[in-house]
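Narrative of accomplishments. A recurring question from our advisory board has been how the design workflow behaves on a single, concrete structure rather than in aggregate. To address it, we present the structure tokens for one chain from the evaluation set, followed by the sequence designed for it. No filtering or post-editing was applied between the two.
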């Protein structure tokens, strides 16, 4: 199965205003945003568990 990536321009031309279907770029952008949110929550939980704002392997 082939994957088609459609590039939609924002300037004048035939592609302006056309909706595009989800692409691989959209998928990875979403995954990266979710990973970033999870990392921030993980750091918050680790800070709460350790009782300090500083977290990491050297914090005891």
């Amino acid at each position: 199965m082939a994957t088609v990536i459609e590039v939609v321009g924002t300037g004048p031309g035939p592609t302006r205003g056309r909706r595009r279907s989800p692409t691989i770029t959209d998928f990875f952008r979403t995954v990266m945003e979710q990973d970033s949110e999870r990392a921030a929550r993980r750091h918050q939980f680790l800070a709460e568990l350790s009782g300090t704002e500083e977290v990491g392997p050297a914090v005891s």
